[in-house]
Write a structure and sequence with these properties.
Helix content is 36%, strand content 23%. The protein has 16 helices and 13 strands. The chain has a 6-stranded mixed β-sheet with strand order 6-7-8-3-9-10, sandwiched between helices.
Length: 355
């Protein structure tokens, strides 16, 4: 099923969060176009979220990205109602979770949503195994079955043999693997990951990203991932949402955003990205399936960096592009090198790829 055809798991509609003594009185001001700094200076209120509309698709990774103060952590905490909105709607599987009473909200948090935190949030007096099976224990599930399930996920995240270790005996990367195993053991439909890898060293962070992507290939979880790092966002996201000052600047498929930034703020974000490493063949290929390629075929999800190496830097080569079991287009090396060159369109500083 194509990404566009995936059903919506969580729908966020016209969501506002204003912090202050009288947040409802600020809503009319937002429609007049007053910005975050002006409202804070004039009223003392802080805009956390400003008219957020996002479809979080089932089985995909939605990455919400922004700098500090952009509203990304505020947004993710609305999804399980750790924060209540000033206005707006949040639906999960078509149900209005804003209408949930205390019992249904507890059930949502315990069975349908799990969370992986930046600071690991492990209980220091509990072992790896005991931390991992915490959600099942809280739900009152059978000890034997819970232990078996927890051990399965401990092994899947690469911690086999550490079941009896305590958090202080583990490295940061190992502790976050425990956090991931705990979220997976809960068997929740939705995983919320708030800056989950931000506290890790770069090499460990990369390995955790690879682990998550490898698990996702098998599990197809609905994941909402918060980050301030564009490289991480582009690597993980099926759908990317970029926030600034509480509002959405741009959202969509990451490759499309990289090639078609809609705002100077986005242009600044993508300006220093290694485009060859991030861009995929499918993003710049020609849909033409009839042209005879000069040098065989390549995978649609190959990076341009890998394609350049495959073509040995020869600008005159062309390839048939295949995905799954069929041909989906053609890629020429001239198109590749054009896509890697940032150039100005009409003096606006836009960066684009070209076919």
């Amino acid at each position: 099923m194509a990404t566009a055809d995936k059903p919506v798991k969580i729908a966020v509609r016209n969501l506002y969060k204003i912090f202050g003594d009288d947040p409802a009185s600020i809503l009319p001001m937002l429609s007049d176009g007053i910005d975050k700094a002006d409202i804070q200076r004039r009223t003392g209120h802080v805009i956390g979220l400003n008219n957020i509309n996002v479809d979080i698709k089932s089985g995909l990774i939605t990455v919400i990205m922004g700098l500090s103060g952009s509203g990304k952590s505020t947004l993710i905490r609305h999804l399980n109602r750790l924060i209540e909105p000033t206005a707006g709607e949040i639906e999960m599987d078509g149900e209005d979770i804003m209408a949930y009473d205390g019992a249904r909200l507890r059930a949502l948090r315990q069975t349908k949503m799990s969370m992986v935190f930046q600071k690991f949030a492990l209980l220091p007096h509990r072992t790896v195994l005991q931390n991992t099976m915490l959600a099942l224990e809280i739900r009152g599930e059978d000890d034997s079955a819970s232990t078996e399930e927890a051990i399965k996920w401990i092994q899947r995240v690469g911690l086999d043999g550490n079941e009896d270790a305590f958090p202080h005996q583990l490295s940061g990367g190992m502790q976050q693997r425990v956090g991931l195993a705990r979220a997976l053991t809960s068997n929740a439909e939705v995983m919320l990951m708030d800056e989950a890898f931000s506290a890790l060293d770069p090499l460990i962070r990369t390995s955790m990203q690879d682990l998550l992507l490898g698990l996702q290939q098998d599990l197809h979880k609905t994941i909402v991932f918060i980050t301030h790092d564009l490289d991480e966002a582009l690597k993980l996201a099926d759908h990317l949402v970029i926030l600034k000052d509480g509002f959405i600047v741009q959202q969509g498929e990451p490759q499309h955003i990289l090639l078609n930034p809609s705002d100077p703020y986005i242009e600044e974000f993508v300006s220093d990205i290694n485009r060859a490493r991030v861009l995929k063949v499918r993003s710049i290929m020609d849909d033409n399936k009839r042209t005879k390629p000069s040098h065989g075929e390549v995978d649609a999800n190959m990076s341009l960096e890998s394609l350049i190496a495959h073509a040995e830097g020869d600008i005159d080569r062309s390839f048939a592009v295949h995905e799954d079991d069929g041909r989906v287009g053609t890629i020429t090396m001239k198109a590749v090198f054009k896509a890697l060159v940032r150039y100005d369109l009409g003096g606006h500083g836009r960066t684009n790829g070209a076919k």
